[in-house]
Amino acid sequence: MTSSPTLLQSHACFGGTVAYYRHASQTCRSEMGFAVFIPPQAAAGPVPVLYYLSGLTCTEDNFTVKAGAQRYAAEHGLMLVAPDTSPRKTGIPGEDDDWDLGSGAGFYVDATAEPWSQHYQMYSYVVQELPELIAEQFSIRRDRQGIFGHSMGGHGALVCGLRHPERYRSISALAPIAAPMRCPWGQKVFSHYLGDDPSTWAAYDASELVATMASDRPILIDQGTADPFLEQQQLLPEVFEQACRQAGQPLTLRMQEGYDHGYFFIATFMDDHIRHHAVALCID
Length: 284
What we know:
Elements: E1 6-13, E2 16-25, E3 30-38, E4 47-53, H1 60-66, H2 69-76, E5 79-83, H3 122-137, E6 140-150, H4 152-163, E7 168-174, H5 184-193, H6 206-213, E8 219-224, H7 228-231, H8 237-247, E9 251-256, H9 263-268, H10 270-281
Parallel strand pairs: 4-5, 4-6, 6-7, 7-8, 8-9
Antiparallel strand pairs: 1-2, 2-3, 3-5
């Protein structure tokens, strides 16, 4: 059993509650934070749960405050869980030096290279420890879980969802880093967290994973055409699209004209993403 989380604050929201927690993570060997939206339907019994993974530099607060997701989650009776994006204040030298490595940049991998391996175990935290804690502390349906995310978190959602079809019944992403082995962000963090052998990186690259882990469950991706990281070849949705086509993985990739990478883009299409998950999680 994991340690009980400490409630930091709570707020009434769309008939439910937004709450922020911290707990001692055994997996990351550090304090970790997460936010939860408990929909009003949870008062009557267990509800499906949808995990959201945020992008670089974010905490559990960005999505919770900016995405406007609670209204739609309340309509469909979905619990939302948003973890922080990395361990923090671990004492690792240089963990706060770069915005795209270390604090706020856990990349949802289990680091194997020193010094990161002692704390940066975000993959196991997201797919094992955090869901167990949520199941122990909140009224959820363990058989109805979905996952989505943005940018670095979109990468994490695709990887976690593809690798664990038995856990996640639905997957979506907004402007995900869809082929990290081929982009500067992914190459930088993978070499630090996983070492210099690229053959060990494929387990955390959705465009590589889908070749052997495709399913019949549809994936939804939205990508803004005015996203500066698209032009910089950091996101590479076309690589994932081609990999899905070859593997027979159902994918809806929507290129949204004029939208950039930020939370105005995310909030615009949040209703669609919540509905995508509700179809899989709320209908028997």
